[in-house]
TrEMBL record:
MF (Gene Ontology): carbon-sulfur lyase activity; metal ion binding
Highest taxon of source: Bacteria
Similarity annotation: Belongs to the Gfa family.
SUPFAM superfamilies, sorted: Mss4-like
Organism: Sphingorhabdus lutea
The name this protein goes by in its record: Aldehyde-activating protein
PANTHER family listed in its UniProt record: CENP-V_GFA DOMAIN-CONTAINING PROTEIN-RELATED, GFA DOMAIN-CONTAINING PROTEIN
UniProt keywords, alphabetically: Lyase, Metal-binding, Zinc
Amino acid sequence: MTKKGSCNCGKISFEVRGALGTPDACHCSQCRKQSGHYWVSTDIEIANVTIKGERHLNWYAASPKVRRGFCKICGSFLFWHPNGRSSIAIAMGAFDMPTNIKLAHHIFVREKGDYYDIADGLPQEE
């Protein structure tokens, strides 16, 4: 099984081999500011990901422990990667449809925006 996706302008594309992990919605202030809302992603082993157009990929050190990958042409926020970790989080919104998976839970809900409610009944972690 493979899933494909890309940034908004198509300069960066990716392919994931194998099943997608269950996605989570991150409501932390960094994800909200980077994406404009909360950010939903799935964790994938890096060995199972092929990225094309890497010359258009820019990495932002969001903290000393984590970097965020985005397209330097269109600005799409695609990847979240903790330093030294063998997996990478990939934005669910960047995948081509259908993904055939559903959101599993919400994280960092204590930092969520005050302009929305989480009312889907899924587990929430502070």
